[in-house]
From TrEMBL:
This is UspA domain protein. InterPro entries: Rossmann-like_a/b/a_fold, Universal_stress_UspA, UspA. Gene3D superfamilies: HUPs (3.40.50.620). It comes from the Archaea. Residues 1-139 form the UspA domain. The lineage of its organism: Archaea, Methanobacteriati, Methanobacteriota, Stenosarchaea group, Halobacteria.
Length: 139
């Protein structure tokens, strides 16, 4: 029985579909939305700014809040609530590392932008291959 579901969200339409799927398929489970803020690098200005700020946790939470707000709106449509979690790092690695705390992972087929897909690679593929728990990829 699935009791804890991790849904990775990046603000894309496909991530929203993944959350909707999780709410429909696992409505009785505890659903946690994870947003990963990319690790600091010269190519990721926002993440670098967060890493250099005095309040890194607050900066990450602030960056994730629009994603979490949308997730709460979607959950409300299903008369449900979601937990939220923000982390910094490479998205695929971070999702895989957190997956062991859950019974299953649900995510969209690809990230929100072409640049993310080219620079980061295929997050869904990596999570699917390396996750210690079952993964559902929604398109």
């Amino acid at each position: 029985m699935i009791e804890r579901v991790l849904v990775a969200m990046d603000g894309s339409d496909l991530a929203e579909r993944a959350l909707r799927y999780a709410l429909e398929a696992h409505g009785d489970a505890e659903i946690t939305v994870l947003h990963v803020v990319g690790g600091a690098s010269p190519m990721m200005g926002e993440a670098t700014g967060i890493a250099l700020s005095d309040d890194e946790d607050g900066g990450m939470r602030e960056a994730a809040e629009p994603v979490f707000e949308r997730a709460r709106e979607i959950a409300a449509e299903y008369d449900a609530t979601v937990e939220t979690m923000v982390a910094a790092g490479r998205p695929a690695r971070t999702i895989v590392d957190r997956a062991e705390e859950f019974d299953t992972v649900v995510l969209g087929t690809h990230s929100s932008s072409l640049a993310d897909r080219l620079l980061v690679g295929n997050v869904a593929k990596t999570v699917f291959q390396k996750s210690p728990v079952p993964v559902t990829v929604v398109r």
